[in-house]
Amino acid sequence: MEQNSNKKGNFIGILPLIVFLVLYMSTGIFTGSFDNMPLMIGIMIASGIALALKKPGETRPTTFDEKVSMYCKGGGEETLILMVLIFLLAGAFYGIANEMHAVESATNLGLSILPSRLILPGLFLIGCILSFSMGTSMGTVAALMPIAVDIANKTGFNIALVSGVVVGGAMFGDNLSFISDTTIAATRTQEVSMKAKFKANILMVLPAVIINCILLSMQTSSTPITQAVYDYNIVNLIPYAVVIVLSLIGLNVIKVMTIGVASGIIIGIIHGDFTLVSSLGIIHTGMTWMEDMSLIAILVGGMVALMNYLGGIDWLLEKLTRKTKTARGGELSIAALVSLLDIATTNNTISIIAAGPIAKEISDKFGIARERVASILDLFSSAFNGLLPYAGQLLVAGGIAKISPMSIMPYVWYCILMLIFGTIFILIGWPKFKKKDIAKVEANLQ
């Protein structure tokens, strides 16, 4: 993306983003539901504002057609289109995995081996495994909350506490899964491999996982739980294993997702869950779940291109880094930016897509390894998304548990610990990664 010649930029260039945030937040607050302002509509309105604005100090005014061309080039940027392809494949994988009962088998396997005396840490770890396998926090919350409510009723555990455990486990996978849309967004915007991002990210959140399990194991219930028997088929977990193993060895993500979908289709047909012909419809349905996210990513790309032309990106970069002299300060700026965007939009993927170009600029300016930048973007946006009482995760959990999302928020200990340790690791500069030559990184991603 072409850089603005005025490195201080112009405040006018940030107006489209401000318009979007004000529209989204005010609509949600005044109507009582953030669903009343669809993200796509809000971004389209902001994009219209960007197209209407004029760049201060232009010697020759840019025509409307030229602005539209900039917008289209920004939305069709190579990284964004690749991200869209991966989003669609991730949707296809989840659709097939759900229909062949891989999700059900993953949940039931965890519950079958769960010791009753470790019910809460066990439930959290099941949530971690399930969300890592599924790549979706919302799907994990929806799958585990009915079980969590039953556990709370039978053991006497605080229902808000148990709900917080489920949400925390769900955000683990949202942050780390190889098929999570946040991981896809973070790695593609920073042009790093999923394996590299995973290695940096897991080191930053592992202490939070361990301490959360310790804290949960210290909680006591008023009634002992009866161990139940759950049905599962270990073969149904093969697609998850395939995706995880191939991603860890560094295979191209398009190949990984394609092989994962193919393995799910084969197993589903063998088990009689669907036919080859009906699997095509399932794949299509899964892809439609990601259509909104894909289109939003393209629209955000176009809007960011116009913001860059108007000087907004440089203005934000200058304001965020004006008093920043070190890589540590740059990382804190990135964490603050993506956190504020997530608080405003309640969508960690969109927050990462919007913050990604600015984070990349900060990375280049202060010599920050892209693996760390991708990890910071994903970690802080996921943590806040699990703590916002008006975000989808707590709304779904509260709805199923029939309690206020606000009552759950103090018990999402894992997300709180993510923020604490994310900040600590920024301050101490660990784990360290060398800043690689960008040309080599891009070559490795081909």
From TrEMBL:
It comes from Clostridium liquoris. Residues 72-193, 237-430 form the Na+/H+ antiporter NhaC-like C-terminal domain. The keyword Cell membrane applies. Keywords: Antiport, Cell membrane, Membrane, Transmembrane, Transmembrane helix, Transport. InterPro entries: Na/H_Antiport_NhaC-like_C, NhaC_Na-H+_Antiporter. GO terms for cellular component: plasma membrane. The keyword Transmembrane helix applies. GO terms for molecular function: antiporter activity. The chain crosses the membrane at residues 12-31, 80-98, 118-144, 198-217, 237-254, 261-283, 295-317, 373-391, 411-430. It is found in: Cell membrane. This is Malate-2H(+)/Na(+)-lactate antiporter. It is a multi-pass membrane protein. It holds the Pfam family Na_H_antiporter. Belongs to the NhaC Na(+)/H(+) (TC 2.A.35) antiporter family.
